[in-house]
Amino acid sequence: MRRALTRITVSVAALLFVVSSSLAADKPQTYIGRVSDAMCGAEHMEAGATAADCTRDCVSKGSKYALVVGEKVYTLDGEDKAALDELNKLADQRAKITGIATGDTIQVSSVVPAK
Question: What is the pTM of this model?
């Protein structure tokens, strides 16, 4: 009986997550985290470089910017020059990103420093 209740609880939680995710899929949301790059994520690997310099170097070599929110790393997608310039300035700093998330990717609509 206890096992059946656990399965039902997990199934209901998963269903609620899927429904809430699909309802919010097309609506911009705001995320706050640390600006990084998709290649390194939360852990920078370039020896002798600061995390900010590593981020900028990886992006210059073709990686996309990323936002580290807790344990989750979102790849930031977008072509807006102002947003990309702001991400460059905020490398390894906290930023507030607004955009539409699809899986682990956020289509960025705005970038501002987080307070």
Answer: 0.76
**Which residue range forms the structural domain that includes residue 70?**
27-113
What is the C-alpha to C-alpha distance for residues 51 and 37, in angstroms, rounded to an integer?
10
**Could you read off the pLDDT of 7-56 as tens digits, one per residue?**
776 565 555 555 555 555 689 999 999 999 999 999 988 888 999 999 99
Q: What is the pLDDT of residues 66-115, one digit of tens each?
A: 999 999 999 999 989 999 999 999 999 999 999 999 999 999 999 999 98
| In a domain? residue 79 | yes
Q: Can you give the C-alpha Rg of the chain in angstroms?
A: 17
- Per the structure, the count of domains in the chain is 1
Is residue 4 situated within a structural domain? no
69 occurs within a structural domain: yes
Q: What is the DSSP letter of 80?
A: -
CB neighbour list of residue 107: distance below 8 Å, 6 or more residues apart: 77, 78, 99, 100, 101
